[in-house]
Amino acid sequence: MPDKFAATWVSHSSISDYLTCPRSYFLKNIYKDPVTNRKMKIMNPALALGQAVHETLEALSSLKTEDRFRTPLPERYAAAWKKISGKRGGFVDEQTEYRYRRRGEEMIARVFNHPGPIANRAVKIQDDLPHFWLSEEEEIILCGKIDWLEYLPEEEAVHIIDFKTGKNYENEGSLQLPIYLLLVHNCQKWPVKKASYWYLDSSDFLTDKTLPAIAEAEQQVLHVARKIKLARLNKQFTCPSGSEECHACAPFEQVLQKKAEWVDQDDFGADVYILPSDSNRTGTTIAEESLIL
User: Fold this and answer.
1) Where are its TM segments located (predicted)?
2) Which terminus of the chain is more solvent-facing, meaning fewer CB atoms within 10 Å of its CB: N or C?
């Protein structure tokens, strides 16, 4: 009988971390502060923006269609923003926070004015963290949350929708669609009919995506998951470009070097840090604007 507590758990974000930089994967997903025994998280404005917008919209899927807009979306967004205001959101000054908050307000207004599938029936997976055995024999579990599942009554199927709050478009080679397809296929009963991204920063409408075959998706994801499991067993997490030059792991190295400021603990008990203001304005800018949420 496989043991889920001893299994290797992988997700879209952890797989992306590993493919970008194994050292970054280690520091974000495994390393714990020897003093606090807590993981670490670096907050920045782009991540805070995505968090507030996602919280505002994802909560609607738990409500009946007729109840979703009883509380105005701007009011929901304002409540979500309070949780990440100031340094808790990585904002080093009021002007920066205002700029990002306004971007979020425009995204929320876009959804309110063009709700599209958000006004239709939705499927809500009941697990707090949907997961399944990607390979029982190898003890690998795939987990993750889906932003929105629109129910398609005529086909008795579901439509996967992912909200995008960054300025950049998802890389065509990304494993996000294969991972989301596998999660939805294995964690609820309705077949997957279609998938779309909604680039909230630039479009009123969804961008249709081509779904891979389930068998192909499983092979792709399992291939990387096996590499992650092997790396964990061998404790090999080397940065391919050198930590000082790597936009993925260098910020976490700054935390280890005591060059970051501790600001809070998140809902999962991780220590939340922000980097010095000069770091936020330079090397991390590109990475921040292409965060996967």
Assistant:
1) none
2) N
Strands 271-274 and 261-265: antiparallel
Name the residue type at position 190. W
3-class state of residue 132 by DSSP? strand
Strand order in the sheet with 192-199: 148-152, 157-164, 192-199, 207-209
Domain hosting 197: range is 121-224
Instruction: Name which of 58, 67, 69, 66 is nearest 125 in CA terms.
Output: 58
Q: Strands 140-143, 8-10: parallel, antiparallel or unpaired by DSSP?
A: parallel
List the chain pLDDT tens, one digit each, 293 residues. Answer: 788 999 999 999 999 999 999 999 999 999 999 999 999 999 999 999 999 999 999 999 999 999 999 999 999 999 999 999 999 999 999 999 999 999 999 999 999 999 999 999 999 998 999 999 999 999 999 999 999 999 999 999 999 999 999 999 988 889 999 999 999 999 999 999 999 999 999 999 999 999 999 999 999 999 999 999 999 999 999 999 876 789 999 999 999 999 999 999 998 999 999 998 755 443 344 344 444 34
Q: What is the number of structural domains in the chain?
A: 1
- Can you give the pTM of this predicted structure? 0.92
Between the alpha carbon of residue 125 and those of residues 129, 184, 293, the distances in Å are: 9, 9, 18
Residue 140 lies in a domain: yes
- Apex CA 242: angle with CA 237 and CA 244, to 5°? 120
For residue 211, being part of any structural domain is answered with yes
Is the Cβ–Cβ distance between 47 and 280 less than 8 Å?
no
Q: Which own/partner pairs from 160-163 qualify as long-range (CB within 8 Å, at least 24 positions apart)?
A: 160/184, 160/192, 160/194, 160/195, 160/196, 161/117, 161/195, 161/196, 161/197, 161/198, 161/206, 162/195, 162/196, 162/197, 162/198, 163/53, 163/54, 163/57, 163/58, 163/198, 163/200, 163/293
CB 194 within 8 A of CB 162: no
